[in-house]
Design a protein that fits this description.
Largest sheet of chain A: 4 strands, antiparallel
Structural class of chain A: alpha+beta
Strand content of chain A: 15-25%
Oligomer: homodimer
Number of helices of chain A: 8
Helix content of chain A: 40-55%
CATH architecture of the largest domain in chain A: Sandwich
CATH class of the largest domain in chain A: Mainly Beta
Number of strands of chain A: 11
Largest interface: A-B, 37 and 37 residues
Order of helices and strands of chain A: HHEEEEEEHEEHHHEHHEE
Chain lengths: ~220, ~220
DNA sequence: GAAAGTCTGTTGGATTTCCAACAAACCGGA
DNA sequence: TCCGGTTTGTTGGAAATCCAACAGACTTTC
């Protein structure tokens, strides 16, 4: 477990916590580590939301399945990121999404009640954690807002450009690698894979970008 | 100002605060009240995000303008609801959205730094406020998630049905009134007004719903 | 290195949306 | 009640997406 302390310290939830304090805190928060194979799910739609997850290794995808069984990718969570915190903090009974490992992964699950409830004894850090949680939730909110910005564009082309420019900005470089293959990107953007591929070709012919597999360069 | 104390007490941010304590708290949080005419804006895209707003009367729409000037409605905020909290809590420099009064309105603006920073003297309630903020942010997160669920549907019909069933569920009744006219609903759903009107007609012919102006009934 | 499986780009027809325009219904004020 | 402005429903052509199918490129496995 100690091998992941670096990840945890870089995690926004534990911002400001000393390494020596982590062990005690994790116990206090009811933490348990879970190891997952690719495609293995951490929770499914309809499950109760009573924990917050921290990705230690690998990556986790948040998926939503619609009435007809069409699957869309809500987001992908990388090491050091949290997931499920909004649902558990809001106290929803049934999760509206599911979470599966995009790769072999390890995640830490924290009991949300222990995170939110101040305990008088050892942990003077609960209020710090709650403050951090505000930051995390606000940041997630921004991410959702950005996703919404993309999703509310009308055309495949506009969605692609909105996503790619955001990625370039995040990478602080016109060259970057995305965490999706074509099918997953289409699921993420909510468009047809074939139409998206065609649009990518067109964008390349127009000299707007270059792409090979998951690597992109905006021109 | 006292006339709005009822609204504030019902507001999730002040949950658990006694009426007698409100006046002191508001002063401590740097609150100032603003009166707005219809269409008047509270903040615009690009403004700094250093406050959180509480709607006291009327309603506020959060708008996003895309590259071509097309406007879309991110959400509508009603009395007792907060807005802008995600951006200010996350500390973004430039707001990605703007906020305008959908009707003649009054809003309360709180200095975000005073909300987040614990002050040792009079206000023992800051930690309570921060806890409440976690709830609010998590709830907003859920709302965004739902909006994303709607926005990521492919067809106008599916978007309409997703939105209307969510509204019916929120109203706990198959009959409900929405806060939009047709154009605003189209902007909210991110579809063409005329195509949406046509789809609504079709849904009525099929016996799925009845609608007159902003009133709907799901069958 | 061959074979099987996966990923990507392309194509064509059916379907849907977009856009502009217009007419009818509705609402508020003179 | 009449008028003018707004909202809503309808229509037709242009454009974009969806869907299914397929071929070539790439990866992995044996």
């Amino acid at each position: 477990m100690k091998e992941f302390y670096g990840i945890l310290q870089a995690c926004a939830l534990f911002c400001g916590v000393q390494e020596g304090e982590l062990e005690g805190m994790l116990a206090c928060l009811g933490a348990r580590k879970v190891t997952l194979q690719k495609e293995e799910s951490i929770f499914r739609e309809g499950d109760p939301a009573n924990f917050v997850g921290v990705v230690l290794r690998g990556a986790v995808r948040i998926l939503r399945t619609d009435f007809y069984g069409n699957q869309s990718i809500v987001g992908q969570v990388e090491p050091g990121d949290l997931f499920g915190e909004a649902f558990s903090c809001a106290g929803v009974q049934a999760l509206p999404v599911s979470a599966v490992a995009a790769q072999p992964s390890e995640v830490l699950l924290l009991d949300i009640h222990r995170v939110l409830t101040l305990c008088a004894n050892t942990c003077a850090f609960h209020s710090r954690i709650v403050s951090n949680l505000v930051q995390v939730l606000a940041g997630k909110n921004l991410g959702l807002n950005q996703k919404l910005d993309i999703a509310s564009r009308r055309t495949t082309r506009d969605k692609l450009l909105a996503y790619l420019t955001a990625q370039a900005k995040a990478a602080q470089s016109p060259r970057f690698t995305i965490p999706f293959d074509r099918q997953a990107l289409a699921d993420y953007l909510g468009v047809e894979r074939s139409a998206m591929s065609a649009e990518l070709s067109k964008l390349q012919k127009e000299g707007v970008l270059k792409t090979h597999r998951s690597q992109f360069e905006l021109l």
